[in-house]
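Notebook, student rotation project (T.W.).
Task set for the rotation: take a protein with a known small-molecule partner, predict the structure of the complex, and write up what can be learned from the model alone. Partner molecule chosen: pyridoxal-5'-phosphate. Sequence and SMILES entered below by T.W., checked by me.
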Amino acid sequence: MVYMDYNATTPCDKRVVESMLPYFSENFANASSVYQPARAARKAVEEAREKVASLAGCLPEEIFFTSGGTESDNWAIVGAALKLEARGKHIITSRVEHHAVINTCKALARKGYRITYLPVDSHGVVDLSKLEASIKKDTVLVSVMYANNEIGTIQPVGKIAELARSRGVLFHTDAVQAFGKLPLRLDKNGPDMASFSAHKLYGPKGVGALYIRKGVSIPPFIKGGGQEKGRRSGTTNVAGIVGFGRAAEIVAAEMDADIERVGNLRDILEKRIMETIPEIVVNGHPENRLHNTLNVCIRYIEGESILMSLDFEGICASSGSACTSGSLEPSHVLLAIGLPHEVAHGSLRLSLGRYNTMEDVEKVSSVLPGIVDRLRQISPFWNEKKTG
Ligand SMILES: *Cc1c(COP(=O)(O)O)cnc(C)c1O
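Predicted structure of the complex:
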């Protein structure tokens, strides 16, 4: 099997699994209890917090563990809205966000909030002048992602932070795809809040974090026993958090080499595909793009049928995002960068990672042209174009 869907999820690193195992059985204690095993669990959680903070370039006390990227996004947005309810009901986001952000904003819109969806250019970068013009007296939050999960485009997060800060507006960024793939340094010049998820960086599913900058406070989203200093209740997911910490530690040690190696594989794959398949476009920013992501639109055929043919060859890839596949609507991200519906329908996302090899690249680049050829033979649009 060739797995090239690392932006959807990553396999849990064996070293991560190993670090987690003791907290399921030998030490299963509730981290909030008073006895010795609970103290040991607490210590392990605090060590994990330090490792996650170190990878994020922030303080340990600025990290709050959650159930994942989706919860972190929901918490940041709803939390900011509730905190600043008296000041206004306007939120600015972008047209290329993950559904965890988009659907949270849509839910607030139904409660009377005004949402501005910033347009992006053909590379997927938000328009900073539109952002500046959109900030009004009643604006309480800007939420723009760090790096896009579908096309890999990296946003000018530093500039957005500067703009938001100069106008006294909170800034949240969904950094789920950036965390572990880009060196982050979250400090007073950056966003006020940032969302992370462990399973995108070789950690377990169902655990993540929200970075909340020191001095910023939002009300809790999950209420209960007061864990995470009262900000996020629920019995601490000790094993998950320990695994998240170990995953962050491994990424920190291996990130530079990984960017180099995986980036090189992606570039070779991109070059081969572009050379062998006609009528194809690469989506995303040519430079400011995640090193592992290759998103293409192959004209005159459907992304879904490419995926099925690849699956038949034992290749796991995706079309758009994992959340939209299965639906017949083209990706909102590809529409936002200005692609017409019929082109956006032919999208294929190959996202690489730690366990990909040159053989994987060879396999994909050798089978894809044949698949495209076959699908085009039976495509009415392709035949129309040839005869027309
Ligand atoms: C995967 C992903 C999420 C959701 O994270 P979960 O931990 O799966 O809930 C949010 N935002 C982006 C950009 C993602 O890629």
